[in-house]
Amino acid sequence: MLKETPSQTAGPYVHIGCTPCSAGLTGVYPADPGASITADAPGVRIRIEGKIFDGANAPLRDALIELWQPDGQSNAGIWLRKSTDLKTGVYQFDTVKPAARSGPPYVCLWIVARGINLGLHTRMYFPDEENGPDPLLKQAGPRRDTLIATRPDAEEDERDTGFPVYRFDIRLQGERETVFLDI
Amino acid sequence: MNRNALSPRDYDWQPKPLTPDYRSSILRSPQQALLRIEGPSPELDGPVFESDTIGPLDSDLIRNYAAANGSDTDAIGPRIIVHGRVLDENNRPVPNTLVEVWQANAGGRYRHVNEGYLAPLDPNFGGCGRCITGDSGEYRFLTVQPGAYPFPNGPNTWRPAHIHFSVFGQAFAQRLITQMYFEGDPLIARCSIANAMTDPAALASLVGVLDMSASVPMDCLAYRFDIILRGRGSTPFENRLEGN
Fold first, then answer.
1. Fold of A14-171
2. Which residues of A121-137 are buried (b: 16+ CB within 10 A; e: fewer)?
3. pTM value?
4. Which of A149, B118, B208, B226 could be A166's S-S partner, Cβ–Cβ 3.0 to 4.6 Å?
5. In this complex, is the C-beta atom of B168 within 8 Å of any C-beta atom belonging to chain A?
């Protein structure tokens, strides 16, 4: 058996390779891979946004985050990739609400950045779903809330954007450290 | 979902999250144990990339940025081929998967808004490339050898020349970002990032080796770097899959 190639940090300039168009390397690729869903992706339009915080509670402004989920009818997978904003640290996915599988719906996330030696897997669940019976959330015990998005400004968001906005902050350390997964 | 599970990851072989000599890991390393997920999970599938989405110059870093900006001048630096195969731990080729690279220019300078190193930009070098692996898992890039550069980790700390690689595989749980170093570089032994793994064999597997057989006489040298992704286990969750 061969050994898996060791991971190395994506470093602070991950954008050059992974989101070149939005990092100023325009024209090399027609668009950044995973920049948006296809217009005909079935499902209810939603936005997922948040920040990734380090152990000093500072947002990572040089991270890359990828999303993997089924579309709203479970016909096909949706993969998206965004960098956190270089100034604010906000990441933002405009997607559709995933179809439920055997349990409540969720999206899979993967995070890399300077200082992260091995990419981090996690999942985001929705606050407006029946999450009780989900085995992963049960397994997470008292830390389950770190895997569930919030809708702090539900009415305001819907008025501004016309669709639901889910807030999902990720914490790399500390009391509310997000649950990361070994899959 | 009828995908086989992946073989468990060897976390003693991979770098630990906290490697204090690499300062940035101190505040960015999770402190709790990972939660192990058993059984079927969507991360055992992943996105598929079609080769027709890749442009003819995408794997040519000597030309792709210049051409996109209307220049017919090549990037400056030692011309090299970087090639290899993407395999899984079971020694099976991983075809049709996306491989992305990024790197500094020959002077060690990145084309990035946050980059402050005094080495100059090369107007004909962007630093990104990509390709889709062939039937045997093979990939190939044409580029210039990147330069070493200092980074703010200690009083006088330098990164060895390296190329960043991003690889997908067939499962989101195989997702990998890593770096390839260059055979014989004395800075490798001094770098806290390269030495994030404790097993010397793990670091050795990140070193691209000079491959004269793939070099082009009077044109460019070649380095070979094979990438190994996690393999599928032999026990499917539901239907028995082909090849098991």
1. Protocatechuate 3,4-Dioxygenase, subunit A (2.60.130)
2. bbbbbbeeeebeebebb
3. 0.96
4. A149
5. no
